[in-house]
Amino acid sequence: MKDVLDRLRASLRKNGLWRTLRLIPRNIVFVLTDFDRKYGTNTRMQVEDDAGLPQEHEGYEGAPPRLFHRTIRSLEVSPDRFAFIDLGSGKGRALLLASHYPFRRVIGVEYSSRLNGIAAHNARLYRHPGRRVREIETVCGDAGAYELPPGDLLIYLFNPFKAAIMERVLANLERAVQDDSREVLVVYQNPTQRHMLDRAPFLELVHYHEYRTRGLRKMPIGRVAVYRSRS
Ligand SMILES: C[S@@+](CC[C@H](N)C(=O)[O-])C[C@H]1O[C@@H](n2cnc3c(N)ncnc32)[C@H](O)[C@@H]1O
């Protein structure tokens, strides 16, 4: 309740009375559909000052659930062939969502030990009946130095890093693709470094999509580029 009153006061200060009143229905929907409120987890955007984020990061934000599910379903692949790997897994929202599909493994790699600890805790708390993967593996480390596991991989990136780290991640991926005759899919959401993947000779763009809300206003909600390794 205190949380609600604090938000109300902040909105009155920022937006004035009429705009605050107009925003109330949207906020009610927001609160009712809030992921953490529903599942008792902590995947919200706020991070503590001492979260120890890397220097070249793009900030922390959990994957939007509807967009995540729309994207994974659009891939039309059998998840049981793939290990799902979220590079820059933060508090683990995408890992929780990925556990709804029968992936071979669900693995998150996160630089911040603080956020990674929260992700591991969330994995224990998350008891959604649709969960298909019991064990979520959380690894604390630099995504650019992470040794990718064998077999087919679905690499998930939600705008995690800037060019310098992406360069190392791509070099790592290229090695993984050459080492083995496996399929690698890369799902890159909000792809700010898309030009780097477009140029990578070992990847081909499968599709790029700008998702918008349904209904009349069709507001943009996210952009997703999907790549697969060239055979
Ligand atoms: C936008 S958040 C994505 C969170 C998560 N993938 C999700 O969708 O719920 C990006 C995360 O990438 C992490 N990150 C940035 N650079 C990293 C690196 N070099 N190695 C591992 N994680 C990194 C940040 O700490 C942050 O938690």
Short key terms for the protein model shown above:
Rossmann fold, 231 residues, 2 domains, 7 strands, alpha/beta
Task: Kindly summarize this structure in a few lines.
The chain has 231 residues and is α/β, with parallel strands linked by helices. It is 38% helix and 22% strand.
CATH top level class name of the largest domain: Alpha Beta
Largest sheet: 7 strands, mixed
Instruction: Give the strand line-up of the largest sheet.
Output: 3-2-1-4-5-7-6
CATH homolog superfamily of the largest domain: Vaccinia Virus protein VP39
CATH A-level architecture of the largest domain = 3-Layer(aba) Sandwich
Number of helices: 7
Q: What is the count of distinct domains?
A: 2
Give me the CATH fold name of the largest domain.
Rossmann fold
| Element order: H for helix, E for strand | HHHEHEHEEHEHEE
Could you describe the 3D structure shown?
The protein is an alpha/beta fold. It folds into 2 domains: 2-33, no CATH class; 65-229, 3-Layer(aba) Sandwich (Rossmann fold), CATH 3.40.50.150. The protein is 38% helix and 22% strand. The chain has helices at residues 2-32, 35-39, 65-74, 93-98, 113-125, 163-179, 194-199; strands at residues 82-87, 105-110, 136-140, 152-158, 184-189, 203-212, 220-229. The protein has a 7-stranded mixed β-sheet. Helix 5 links the parallel strand 2 (105-110) and strand 3 (136-140). It is globular, with a radius of gyration of 19 Å. The model has no long low-confidence stretch (mean pLDDT 89). S-adenosylmethionine binds at residues 53-54, 57-58, 60-63, 86, 88-90, 93-94, 109-112, 115, 142-144, 158-161, 165.
